[in-house]
Amino acid sequence: MKRCVFVWVMALALVAFMSVPGAMAGEVEVLHWWTSGGEAKSVAVLKDLLEKEGHTWKDFAVAGGGGDTAMTVLRSRAVAGNPPTAAQVKGPQIQQWGEEGVLADLGRVARAEKWDDIIPGVVAQVMKYKGQYVAVPVNVHRINWMWVNPAVFKKAGATIPKTWAELEEAAKKIQAAGMVPIAFGGQDWQEATVFESIVIGLGGADFYRKALVKADPAALNSPTMVKAFERFKSLKQYTDKSAPGRDWNLATAMVIKGEAGMQFMGDWAKGEFTAAGKKPGVDYLALPMPDTDKYFLFNVDSFIFFKQRAVAAGQAAEAMARLILQPKFQEVFNINKGSIPVRLGMPKENFDAPAQRSMDDFVATAASGGLVPSMAHEMAVYPEVRGAIFDVVTNFYNSDMSAADAAKRLASEVAAAK
Amino acid sequence: MTNEGRQTGMRFAGSLQRYLPRIVLSPTILSAVVFIYGFIMWTAWISLTNSGLLPRYKLAGFLQYVKLFQNDRWWVASRNLAIFGSLFIFFCVVFGLILAILLDQRIRVEGALRTIYLYPMALSFIVTGTAWRWMLNPGFGLERLVREMGFTSFTFDWLVNSKMSIYTIVIAGVWQSTGFVMALFLAGLRGIDDSIIRAAQVDGASLPKIYWRIIIPTMRPVFFSAVIIMSHIAIKSFDLVMVLTRGGPGYSSDLPATFMYTFAFTRNRLAFGAASAIIMFMAVMSIIVPYLYSELRIKRNG
Predict the structure, then answer these.
(1) How far apart are CA B253 and CA B162, in angstroms?
(2) pTM score
(3) Does the beta-carbon distance from B268 to A382 stay under 8 Å?
(4) For a tag on chain B, would you pick the N or C end, based on fewer CB atoms within 10 A?
(5) What average pLDDT does range A25-34 have in this prediction?
(6) CA dist A342 to A121, A130, A234, Å?
(7) Of A373, A364, A96, A368, nearest in space to A209 by CA
């Protein structure tokens, strides 16, 4: 009988020992959804750097749904009290995780590496919870880009637009020449991407911040917003009939093939042009969307780190956070991913022309105040508010709702979601 | 072994026999209690809280339900379910019945035809949705095909028209499920005693009259089963919408299931999503419970 109890105790002890999370020295388990070709290559760079320092990398990639699936997995792991070391979480959601009290404080690394000096203040603000770094930024995407096929413009005799009036004029000419002026994908996030660029182009950075970052009801239901809705709807006549539901990369393909003149999309569209063997400046042009050359809507991917019980695991996590912002990783990762480094003052030679322009604008707008977080790409407001904005924008665009009603609805739906 | 030992052994075998069914069944019962009823209760509880990103257990009353009923998108989704559910069930039953009656005429290649009609059932809704998305797309589907045949004014743009998009889901759903309903009816038709029909023929009844007055009424239980199965397929429809229209254009073809997923899992509104799930659950219950009640009562009486 006694022996029996002994065996049970031993067995339980063994099970308990084996299931202690992070008991292995210096392991980081990283949840991310960078699984496509270039992205996976980028992640492998970080893994190599970390392994050179003697830590081990446990990959926890969850593909699909633009991160929705990964978030569901992360939530269940966090509820079970067994979160991974680090997870790809961005924007205001960092604050929500901070409120749950599960995030590790990265203050020590941040001070040693002088993060406050090497990343812009607007971006740093997103990474901090109650003044302390809890997340580390990886890369920067610019949202307000316009991708142009110059051959289409030439055929139609149109000039490449810099202002909204020029855009309408060019669109009419392209349409008259029998081509689609604007390649568009009718999915809510793509609609919101174009809409937020229109809002900043029309209302400026201060209005944008009030309306789509602070979600101030007075700004949401304002004459400027009504005008932005009208302008957004006026684009519809320049898109083709099959646009609803179309994926963004299929819209990009229309520009590449010369079926459409231009597309409004973030700088990840560049990857499609590169994959098709097109050269920037020759086969395609990347310009800021009309009226928005003074502004930079940013989308920053970042990792949050969870509190670790084991000391070694904490050290490995700090090493990972430090490596992410080191110049070497910043360069290799961002060239692979098609984004630009979040670290300021990086050498530009190895980046292509659109990325170089983006890097210059990043610095310039950070100084001028034109650098603002993107609402459509989860950088500006909580997911529930973003969802409410999406609902109104997409419903407005796809129904016969008036612009004045849309602005009114925007304010009330956002208030209900908060 | 001593006599005493053998007796213990027998007693053990006896009690084992008595308890064996319970022991064997207990895992299923336990898992049903925990994973079905337990999680229903959990969802109901969450729907009464303020949970956002992660579940919180402090009750906040019916706030989420109030917000749900004020949400425009929820009403669009509910109205869509009413349209989709009624049309889907109606057309599946009508077409299924017609096909079953036609197949029941002792035709030669019945086996092959039955397989052809049943085949869509073997596909997942993802495949059905993708295929129909291509066919219904005005840019390269049916509309373009007919226009290239010379009818240049032909328009069929339901997929991209927010007023009509929900009907494309009906089309794809009916295509998928009619074969299954047909199989149900065919089985029902085969179960009818031939002598009744012959007696009616002797009495001089025409074939349509025999079907209308005798055969269809005797298949009442089959109708019930078909409607119940179809209605739960309709209420839980998710994959077909996700693939065919993604709820769009806008959110014009949203259904409650896609609504729930969107709010609970992509917008960090767990409690709000749970509230919509509970309303869906009540909708299912309001169909299933009366049905079970009537079925069980018939059995007890019979």
Answers:
(1) 8
(2) 0.84
(3) yes
(4) C
(5) 85
(6) 11, 21, 35
(7) A373
Cα–Cα distances in angstroms (integers) from residue B27 to residues B18, B20, B203, in the given order? 17, 12, 57
- A106 CB-near residues (< 8 Å, 6+ apart): A132, A133, A134, A135, A136, A305, A318, A321
Calculate how close chain B gets to A74, using CA atoms only, in Å. 10
On chain A, the residues whose CB falls within 8 A of the CB of B260 are none
Partners of A376 on chain B (C-beta within 8 Å) are: none
Q: Which domains does chain A have, with CATH numbers?
A: 24-142+299-358 (3.40.190.10), 145-297+379-417 (3.40.190.10)
Distance CA A188, CA B69 (A): 23
Q: What is the CATH topology of the domain spanning B72-267?
A: MetI-like fold (1.10.3720)
Q: Which residues contact B187 (CB under 8 A, 6 or more apart)?
A: B222
Chain mean pLDDT for chain A: 89
In a mutational test of the B interface, the residue from A229, A304, A394 whose CB has the highest number of chain B CBs within 10 Å is A394
pLDDT tens, A75-96?
A: 888 888 889 999 999 899 999 8
Say how far apart CA A392 and CA A412 lie, in whole Å.
10
pLDDT at residue A84, rounded to an integer: 92
Closest CA to B50 of B202, B273, B281: B273
Both structure tokens of A47? 């893994």
User: pLDDT tens digits for B243-294?
Assistant: 998 887 889 999 999 999 989 888 888 999 999 999 999 988 888 888 778 7
DSSP string for B40-78: HHHHHHHHTB--SSS---SB-TTHHHHHHHH-HHHHHHH
ipTM strictly over 0.95? no
Classified as helix, coil or strand, A131 is: coil
CB A286 within 8 A of CB A145: yes
Residue A170 CB burial class (10 angstroms; 0-12, 13-18, ≥19):
buried
Is residue A382 within 8 A of residue A96, CB to CB? The reply is yes
> What are the residues facing A299 on neighbouring strands?
A141
Residue B80 to residue B75: CA distance in whole angstroms = 8
CB A316 within 8 Å of CB A149:
no
**Distance, CA of A260 to chain centre:** 25
A75, B52: Cβ pair inside 8 Å?
no
> Which chain A residues have a beta carbon less than 8 Å from that of B252?
395, 398-399
- pLDDT, residue A8, reads 58
Instruction: Evaluate whether B227 touches B92 at the Cβ level (below 8 Å).
Output: no
Q: Which residues of chain B have a pLDDT value below 70? A: 1-6, 298-302
Alpha-carbon distance A135 to A229, whole Å? 35
Residue A322 pLDDT > 70: yes
Q: Which of A97, A383, A398 has its CB closest to that of B248?
A: A398
Mean pLDDT of the region A27-39: 84
What percentage of chain A carries pLDDT values higher than 70? 93
Q: What pLDDT shows up at residue A22? A: 38
pLDDT of residue A4: 56
Distance from CA of B177 to the nearest CA of A (A): 25
Judged by CB atoms closer than 8 Å, whether chains meet at A417 and B157 is answered as no
Q: Give the integer Cα–Cα distance in Å for B173 and B129.
A: 9
B175 and B93 Cβ atoms separated by less than 8 Å: no
3-state secondary structure of A27: strand
CA distance B146 to A156: 29
Token pair 């609504």: residue: B259
- Reported confidence tier of residue A411, pLDDT bands at 50, 70, 90: very high
Residue A361 has pLDDT above 90, yes or no: yes
Task: State pLDDT tens for residues A119-129.
Answer: 999 999 999 99
Is the pLDDT at A341 greater than 90, yes or no?
Answer: yes
Amino acid at B63: L
